[in-house]
Design goal:
Distance between the termini: 23 Å
Largest sheet: 5 strands, parallel
Radius of gyration: 17 Å
Strand order of the largest sheet: 3-2-4-5-6
Shape: globular
Number of helices: 7
Order of helices and strands: EHEHEHHHHEHEEE
Length: 192
């Protein structure tokens, strides 16, 4: 597995490249906070997307908050070659957790959407965007909730990287596979 670093400029270009792969124009684009919010903002600039509805969903893992608070200062002093090895090690640990995910339990998690019911009736194509799919747990929860709210809509997923083949949700569109991307908002990103 390899690790690539995207700066702000390359991230925005890659986001637009991802959206240019879409086969259907979405009526609603849902970004998953945190990484998906950056992807959502970048794709709003795409000429075929900018007139749709947009929504952000927050569903952050507890471990993300811990990493931001305690690990970020430590990570900022390590060289990328060590950080890359740590990312690959973390990905291997995450991969081992996929088979232990309880899908029935995940289906019971309810998210709140801000889309008004009057607008909801006109939504036929939904695109969920995020920076990456690892286990697919977050994407599974969001997609399941969208299916409940919009049972007639076609729901597709677009991510910049699909890091683990055995994820419980597979993206419809992606730029990288089996590649870990370091983004400008990543805890181990360094200004260059």
């Amino acid at each position: 597995m390899k690790v690539l670093t995207l700066n702000n400029e390359t991230f925005e270009k890659e986001s637009l490249k991802l959206i240019s792969k879409l086969e259907v124009k979405p009526d609603l684009v849902v970004g998953i906070v945190k990484g998906g919010s950056y992807v959502l903002e970048a794709i709003k600039k795409h000429p075929t997307i900018n007139d749709g509805l947009f929504e952000l969903i927050t569903l952050q893992r507890q471990s993300t908050k811990i990493k931001q608070r305690y690990l970020k200062p430590f990570l900022s002093v390590l060289p990328y070659r060590i950080l890359n090895k740590l990312r690959i090690l973390e990905s291997k640990q995450v991969t081992s957790k996929i088979s232990k995910l309880n899908l029935k339990q995940l289906q019971n998690i309810v998210l709140k959407f801000e889309i008004e019911n009057t607008k909801a009736k006109s939504i036929k194509n939904i695109l969920i965007v995020d920076d990456a799919i690892d286990t697919g747990k977050t994407m599974f929860i969001v997609k399941n909730n969208l299916k409940q709210k919009f049972p007639e809509a076609k729901i597709e997923i677009a991510v910049l990287t699909w890091t683990i083949d055995s994820s419980i949700v597979k993206p419809d569109y992606y730029l990288y596979k089996n590649t870990l991307l370091r983004f400008p908002w990543s805890n181990d990103y360094k200004q260059q």
